[in-house]
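Data availability (excerpt). All sequences and predicted token strings are deposited with the supplementary files. A representative entry, 2-hydroxyhepta-2,4-diene-1,7-dioate isomerase, is shown inline so that the format can be inspected without opening the archive.
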Amino acid sequence: MRIARFSIDGNVAFGAVEGEGTVESGGLVLDIIKGIPYTDFELSGTKVPLSKVRLLPPVLPNKVVAIGRNYAEHAKELGHEVPEVPVAFFKPTTSVIGSGDAIEYPSFSSELHHEAELAVVIGRMCREVPRDRVKDVIFGYTCANDVTARDVQKREAQWARAKGFDTSCPLGPWVETDLDPSDLAVQATVNGEQRQLGRTSDMIRSIEDLVVHITEAMTLLPGDVILTGTPAGVGPLTVGDEVAVTIEGIGTLTNKVIKRG
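Structure token line:
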């Protein structure tokens, strides 16, 4: 099931996405969910065309835990070795935007890069999750763009500013709850030109590895997000660019880059 979060007439709700097509092409409707989707829920039967609503980030995470250098070719293109343990960092909630929202080019950077990623959405509070229970704590999956101020990342030892600035974490367009994430195509295009194309089967650490590793240290809450790393092909974004992240079985997350100010 595809679960979207949206606003209409000043109200915010979740809905199940039904129909065929894309956000842009039309043909999709939302069956409004009673309550929140992390627990047992009912569909209201009240349906609205997706074209009549504003899509919001599909979740409001308490935290976004991101993983760096989880594809060997991406580590290589940046001149790094594959790390012995997963490289984890945080992106703040203020960095999260939805599909269709603008990425604001930060004033303190002159080298902004896209990073297409599969995002894992947590469905229940969990800590010290054993490997065989990882699937039980996952709500679903969505598309993510770990937008990075690469020049800032190179000169600052901590990545908080390089990867945590406002609008640096687009998520969407919705969460797909019924998906095998083990071998999905992950693609990024800029102005329609393909920049990245990889498969989740090329990840160095699997989703199970990452959930076990992260929850050894911290409690994850419903709606929290794990970014699983990006394949090779990252590259520059400029003001006016439209960047799209497409993941097989989920859909396409699209954002335009604007000047902050």
